[in-house]
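Bench log, entry 3. Co-assembly request; chain sequences pasted below exactly as received.
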Amino acid sequence: MIRVRSVRVTYDGIKALDGLSLDVVDGEFVGLIGPNGCGKSTLIRVISGILLPDEGCVELEMSPLKGMSRRDIARTVAVVPQESHFFLDFRCLDIVLMGRNPYLRRFQSETEEDYRVALDAMRVTDILHLRDRGVNEISGGEKQRVVIARALAQSPRILLLDEPTAHLDIDHEIEVFDLLKRLNREGLTILVVSHDVNVAAEYCERILLMVDGKLAAEGMPEEVITQETLCKVYGANIVVGKNPKTGAPHVLLAPEHGRGGG
Amino acid sequence: MMARRWWAELLLLSILLVVVAFLSMGVGPSWISPLRILGVRLPRVVLGVFAGSSLALVGAALQGILQNPLADPYILGVSSGAAFGAALAVVLRLASSLLTPVFGFLGAILAIIAVYNLAKSNGRVPKDTLLLSGVLVGFFFSALVMLLMVMAKSELHEITYLLMGNLGFIFARSDIPLFAVFVLLVGVCGGVIYSRSREMNILSLGEEGAKQLGVETEKLKMMVFVTSSVVVGAVVAFCGAIGFVGLIVPHITRILVGPDHRRLIIASILLGGTLLLVADAAARTIAPVELPVGVITAIFGVPFFAYLLKRRKKQFD
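Structure output for the full assembly:
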């Protein structure tokens, strides 16, 4: 589980996180939404130990992040960024094996067990056929699945994703979120940042809405994604309806100068 | 299958090094008796393997931690520091040959300390700042060397030769222990660098990504930077600034064995020694006078550098 208490982070005089507190319980699938610049990515960086908060504390699985080594953190939390660049052209299998680093000693090479875990992760993410391909010669959607496989190879308790599908087509986006749902059912705790409110509403059990570095609302998708709340945050040009197939709340555009308006 | 191919490549590169080492002992401006080969050309071959391997090792490591394919052992300003130290020893006529390398090495250490402290801010050393301060400190020491050259009279030739890099260091019996100490030092530093090769692989994902996989990136960069600098200092102290071996060899090796530093570093060590021996054999035979090997490596290195630059552009456009 993740516990964040009164965390404050200031960058260049701007408060990125302003006394933020939240909890993510074991086994949850939580979506973090909010307008650009509200501090979503900063929160991911704080939880993964990249950024030290100026104030407040973060706990992972009941132990304070402050006392954990990078290896300890990497065994507990894995992060999938929005986009990955690969400076060197490793094979996809090599990239996934890098997820085993927190379990390996300095001179130790990967054991059979490490290969088994990595190949399992590749099977789950359906990229086994890419194992010997260079990571820079595959498509964006495939790359993102390689990165997710690497995260799974860390055998983490918690998976953090920072807009993992921002650069993907809709079909790949659905594939990725279906995969996350499956992993969540098998016990992985997931916190995913999404700028796409609809996708979050469709897949997450609980939604956190962040505004200006603070939590503005939280609850089930239908409690948070309401006309009233979203209009306050994003302005008046949206309508909240329902997905006719799943019943989840769905945000629709209602522009002033669209087809219906002036 | 991949593992078997790697062992084959390793064997091939090792055989190549041994064969080239033997052949290059037979090559020279004039025929000499086998007995004199031991005295004259064997030290040269030993020095060639020492310098070529060390520079290639450091090149591979620095390209890894700076995530810059154009980084080479001299970009961090350490060689200029070493050249300054050695030139100072020459000008001060301390030139019992023993003191030149010692001064060279001290110059290198001075440069490392300067570069590292210049680049550090808030306990972090961003890789671009490290490059920039390396270039800066390098310029400064180069200027000091030029100053020494202006002041020097009869020693000018010796300094010029030092700057160009050559394997003609003449070993007196008393130099051998010092050389042995330097080789040991380079061996230890090389071991430290090699022990970080898996982490260097991971660093290619970017610093944030590497941290999230459990790598202490600041510590990694510091360790590799300092040990690399010590290695470069030791090489320049004996052989002067031999350019381009450290830049080119890792690139050729990457094409041969792939990007994994655990293989790249070992293969670079073998190929670096081989290539420098070939270049030195050419330096001894191409022209009527013996050329400094640094001239040969630069003449062949620059076109290769240009080729890499072109290819890289194509890749990113």
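The radius of gyration of chain B is 19 Å. The domain at 65-241 of chain B is CATH 1.10.3470.10 (ABC transporter involved in vitamin B12 uptake, BtuC).
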